[in-house]
Specification:
4 strands, alpha+beta, 27% strand
Amino acid sequence: MRPKPFLPMTWCYEPVGGGHTFRWGRGSGVITVHRGDVRGSHGDEALVDTVRVGRDWVDDRDLRVEARRWLRAEQQRLRRAAAQPTEQDR
């Protein structure tokens, strides 16, 4: 059996926007964002985004803060995209 990389890991599920799971493995340098509730998973099923972070998490609160930051940025991105005129509008 292969050892699992970047242990320990922490997961956070946020139901906002259809639901996303955020995973941060110690030493990985990234938070992975997955669609739906995939807490406990070590794979990349339903991967939506990868967020580079320059530090490791200290406790679960760190991941919750980063998850909410990503959700706010994603909501802003979707609003901007919706405000852009489409080819049909021109």
